[in-house]
Amino acid sequence: MPVLALAALAALIFGPLARAGFVYDDVWFLVKNPAIRRVAPLTFLLRPETGAAPGSGLALGNFRPLATLSLAFDYRLWELRPGLYHLENAAWHLLNACLVLALSRRWLKSRAGAWVAACVFLVHPVQVETVAWISQRSNLLCAAALLASLLLLTKDRDEPVALGAGLATYAAALYAKEEALVLPLLVLLCDALRSGRLSKSLKERHRVYAALSAVTAVYALSRMVIGHPWSQFEAGRPSIRTDLMLGAVSFAVYLGKLVFPVALRPSYDYPAFSAWAVAGGFALLPAYAFACGWACGRRSALGLALAWAAIALLPVLHLVPLRPFVAERFLYLSAAGAGLAAGWLYERGGIWRWAVAAWIVGLAGQAAATVPHWKDERSLWAAAVAAQPSNAFARVCYAQTLDEPAQAEGQYKAALTAQPSEASRFAALNNLSNVMLRAGKPRQAGYWARLAAREQPGEVHALYNLCRAYEAAGDPRSGAACAALRRRRTEPSLP
């Protein structure tokens, strides 16, 4: 019965995705990726660049061959019909909620509390990004394998078959997404809470931890041998101090999104650090650690919930440099911890039950309202701009979806006044030249193209627009601009 109720909730909230299209990076991971046109597991493993379309730059730091294999199987089944991909994502999410239900029953005293935990995991609004974005198949597969492994490896008695299956699913989770590296910590946490002593757990189950370490080492070694980086930046870590501050501030944001998921969006701008934000972020870390230690010392399910939410976030707190400052998809596993905490509160009875029930209703309502944002590119980025008007990247992406030149021009100019990154500034300038050409204003197009060319000298898109603008305006500088473009030996399509 609980599983049927979860299925009904999933259908109610995520059913509209059946009419949604490909959005955001789906174009690069799926639509324009020639590698997934055939099922080639060994190729996906040994050539990580097959994870995204050539030239997209998205394969860097994304060593996820199992996810690529999954998309290749899907392409063979239903080619480029996005609704079916979306429904499969929803099915994986439902499976993960059922796994959370099974895990929660081990730690909570009531079936109702376990169902509450699974319900929170299923309907939390931060989960919408993972479910609605086809490119996040990696997140769903990783979570499914990790949760299954945790179920197998934390049984009351060690059984060879369960151990073997647990190690196999852990390996599958790693090759779906690198965030599965937190599994050994979660196993250790569960064992320590069950036995009451960390040293006792390490002594009694040393073979399990040795096997987990071996699987982790094989994964890390294979990644290193293949030559795939851990960082998502080619230049590596720009500043350890900056990364530490980003990690502290992002941790506070993540916890806030788990409790009060407001202003959700597909893109979060890097913050302008203030002393208060940084101090608050660093002050929260020991306070949260103390709360985890206190609850774990009492061998309470609350301790597992709090520690789970934090451990699942370790890979995305900028210990390894990441492109995004914060992303809701990074909360996918942490939402299981939030669900377990809600189930624990529900067991307290009294007013807590009403509070948890009201919170879940609010979560479900917000999730249902968020799903339509992922219908197409325009609705997605319109919602992102509305949630954070100062986000230059969101404004550039929204402008690219607009057909009316005047509206697109306004968004690009707004992006330029919003402290854009170098990439967003170049995109806004270069695309403004396109807008001016479409509007029949070649002189203004030349102005914006010159600024774009100064941002990235020799960049072919900027040279292409500059050549077109000068030719349309009859500017004598067109010869030099077009000659520079020819020297680049390529003529790209319009951005």
Order of helices and strands: HHHHHHHHHHHHHHHHHHHHHHHH
Beta strand count: 0
Relative helix content: 55-70%
Major β-sheet, in short? none
Question: How many helices in DSSP terms?
Answer: 24
Radius of gyration: 24 Å
Mean pLDDT: 90
Q: Number of domains in the coordinates? A: 2
What does this protein look like?
With 495 residues, the protein is mainly α. The chain has 2 domains: 2-374, no CATH class; 389-487, Serine Threonine Protein Phosphatase 5, Tetratricopeptide repeat, CATH 1.25.40.10. The chain contains 24 helices and no strands. The protein is globular, with a radius of gyration of 24 Å. Residues 491-495 have low confidence and may be disordered.
Topology (elements, then pairings):
Blueprint: H1 2-14, H2 26-31, H3 41-46, H4 65-78, H5 82-107, H6 111-123, H7 128-132, H8 137-153, H9 160-176, H10 183-195, H11 198-204, H12 206-226, H13 240-259, H14 275-297, H15 301-311, H16 334-347, H17 351-370, H18 377-387, H19 392-399, H20 405-416, H21 422-438, H22 442-455, H23 460-473, H24 478-487
Helix pairs in contact: 1-5, 1-6, 4-9, 5-6, 5-8, 6-16, 6-17, 8-9, 9-12, 10-11, 10-15, 13-14, 14-15, 15-16, 16-17, 18-19, 19-20, 20-21, 21-22, 21-23, 22-23, 23-24
